[in-house]
Amino acid sequence: MPLTPEVLTANREAVAWLFSLDVSFAPDEEPWFTIDGIESPRQVGSDGSGGTFVLLPSQNVLYVSSEGRAGIIADTFEAFVQLVVARPYWLDILKFSGGGDLAEMRRAAEALEATLDDEDEINEAREEIRMNLALGEADDPVGALYEAIAASDAIVRATDGSPFTTLFNRFSIDNNPMLRNAAA
Question: What are the φ/ψ torsions at residue 171 (nearest 5 degrees)?
Answer without folding.
Answer: -75, 160
